[in-house]
Amino acid sequence: MHEAAMAQGIVSTVLAEAARRGAHAVRAVDVQVGDLEGLDADALRAAFELEAVDTCAEGATLSIHVTPTRLVCTACGHAWEPRIHRDDPVACPRCAAPARVDGTRGIVIQRAILTTPDGP
After folding, report:
1. Within 13 Å, how many C-alpha atoms sit on residue 119's CB side?
2. pLDDT at residue 84, as a whole number
3. No. of H helices and E strands in the chain?
4. Residue 63: beta bridge partners?
5. Are 2 and 42 contained in the same domain?
6. Same domain for 42 and 16?
7. For the chain, what percent of residues have pLDDT higher than 70?
8. Residues 30, 77: one domain?
């Protein structure tokens, strides 16, 4: 279950930033996840909640935005979202050149809402 490992990474990164800014609470975290990660969003939320227990992130909400798979032609640069199984070989619909997968793996923390001594 790589959701637990991802949740650990999210919580540790957010807690480090909260400490750096002198925040006493994390209210919300927004992440962007590539759909090729194959994540179960509910499992990631549950793992996030467990990782946040007894930290300043306990009770924070986790919003997950999934980035669809996108292919880019290596020759002409045309980009599209495939309507095929992700393991099938693909070629550009414009010029038939090979395509590469673009930005649909990994996770990015887009935003963390922190409560600091100066205010939210």
Report:
1. 0
2. 63
3. 2, 6
4. 30
5. yes
6. yes
7. 92
8. no
